[in-house]
User: What shape does this take?
Amino acid sequence: MSTTPFPLAVSLGDPAGVGPEIITASYARMRSDWRSQTFFVVGGVEVLKNAAEACGADCPVVPIAQPDEAPMAFHAGLPVLAGLDVPYTPGKPTRLGAQLALTSLEWATRFAVRAEASGMVTAPIAKAGLMEVGFEFPGQTEFLASACGLSPEDAVMMLAGPSLRAVPLTVHIALADVPLKLSSDLIANKTRIVAKALQWDFGVGNPRLAIAGLNPHSGENGQFGDEETRIIQPAIDVLRGEGFNVTGPVPGDALFTPRMRETYDAALCMYHDQALIPLKALEFDEGVNVTLGLPIIRTSPDHGTAFDIAGQGTADPSAMCAAIRMAGTCAKARAAASAHA
Assistant: This one.
């Protein structure tokens, strides 16, 4: 049985995207292993019923009134919190659908913060649609940090798959702005968050962390830029002085080679694509977005709403399955770490 007493809360995502079908397909794929980790969906009873039917998923839907009903319901069908719904319009996003996605996200977060859920998994959203109904954050990561009473800098995005964990130290900003955003303090602070999360949520006793350079050849002794000597190396020196197992600055073209990947538990990268391109190239079908530094567990499949294929039954649920499994594993690891603290 699970060492966490509560199920995971899954937010519906945009109901016109692939979220409903990958959720129902994940349940169909994972239902035989329900004793290891249960989950429920926040809203969308009819949406999920229609998505399962349209995509041929073996996923009965069981309406529930509150999260603690999910474990008993899970063996009979996918538990879904009743009372929040819209018509199912795959590939055709609506304002009502965006409002449902936002409400589902807000409620799932509340359940996780109140420990009525052992963690949360977020299905893909459409940011433009959410902003039309009052969402005021660049993304779900920043929203979750705020909901937990933290600043955006306290939450760190990590992309994880079977063979790679990669962290972009700067995220949704223009490439030209990256050198201006980087600082030794930012690198050191986020590295500390990553190290602690690897210990508490992934059971890595002494995390090995590789920090990337920014410039080609890590600057080649200043020939291609001085950020490595001026910003990155000082951060590494501070971290090593604090006892962290850190290497770098590692040239970006060497950081993700097979042999190099064997030498670290996570790679910390200077900008968005430096982390996401190798992760998606290696782990596209199983890539999971994990938010580190929060008092709650949060994962998400590392892909978007895919409105163009929604409702056609072609969306691969592997990343959603991986996100659910990883959230459950992290919740159990954190519970065990807290019990022994």
User: Anything to note?
Assistant: The radius of gyration is 20 Å.
